Amino acid sequence: MQPRDSRIILWVGAKHSGKTTAVSHLVENIIHKEFTVAGILSVSVYQGSELRGYDVVDITTRRKEFLARIGQTGLVKFGKFGFSKKGLMFGNKVLMLERTLKADLVVVDEFGPMELHGSGWRESVDFLIEKAKGMVMLVSREEIVTDVVKLYESTGCEIVNAGMEQSQDRVSILPMKSYAKWLKNPDNGARLRETLFGSRPCRVREMLNKRVEKREIDRISE
């Protein structure tokens, strides 16, 4: 049974199964619902039909940096890949930005063996789990999911199968669940009304009603 108030979503699939493509579609879906998404994607780089490595992409700006290549020398070596220090610095900087901390959903693609060994995006992910406003999604391979769950056992992980059709809808409602829970806190509600009074006081409720009916908000925030 998954923890009820998990802060981490594990977007899980087999190696080279299209996890990044699926999470890219998910990001667009959540943005369409007027929630904010930030973080990084690791985009495959091919030479013909052969995988040569990965580039890291800032979800917000779409800026891309060289991240890793197979068999390339002069880079940080991990497994068969050589990682660019500049690419690692770029990705970690994106994950530590204020706009990332304030996003409704932060995506980290990929959280893999490198992170389990304490490098790559690991330090940034640990910081995000502690400080981020919204939920943190880690894109991971199915063969390491047990290790990731164990690593963040105290925080709680909700595992989502990237290959299942209903996974997109399931994850799309999680920022809503997190926000509805936040809104139910009397102090947060009072601050929000004070901020919106005299300008657009009904805006938040209108936004929520576009997604689900009021009874659904009450249900997911219980």
Identify the notable features of this structure and list them briefly:
single chain, 222 residues, alpha/beta, Rossmann fold, 2 domains, nine-stranded mixed β-sheet, 11 helices, 9 strands, 43% helix, globular, disordered C terminus
Short characterization:
It contains 11 helices and 9 strands. With 222 residues, the protein is of the alpha/beta class.
Structure report:
- This protein is of the alpha/beta class.
- The chain folds into two domains: 8-172, 3-Layer(aba) Sandwich (Rossmann fold); 173-222, no CATH class.
- Helices cover 43% and strands 25% of the residues.
- Strands 5-6-4-3-2-7-8-1-9 form a nine-stranded mixed β-sheet, sandwiched between helices.
- A hairpin with a 2-residue loop joins strand 2 and strand 3 (50-58).
- The radius of gyration is 18 Å and the shape is globular.
- Mean pLDDT is 81; it is low at 195-205 and 210-222.
Query: Biggest sheet: strands side by side, in what order?
Result: 5-6-4-3-2-7-8-1-9
Radius of gyration: 18 Å
| CATH class term of the largest domain | Alpha Beta
Determine the CATH superfamily of the largest domain. P-loop containing nucleotide triphosphate hydrolases
Helix content: 40-55%
CATH architecture of the largest domain: 3-Layer(aba) Sandwich
Largest sheet: 9 strands, mixed
Give unreliable regions as ranges: 195-205, 210-222
Structural class: alpha/beta
Mean pLDDT over the full residue set:
81
The helix-strand sequence is EHEEEEEHHEHHEHEHHHHH
Tally of strands? 9
Distance between the termini: 18 Å
| Beta-strand residue percentage | 25-35%
Number of domains: 2
Shape: globular
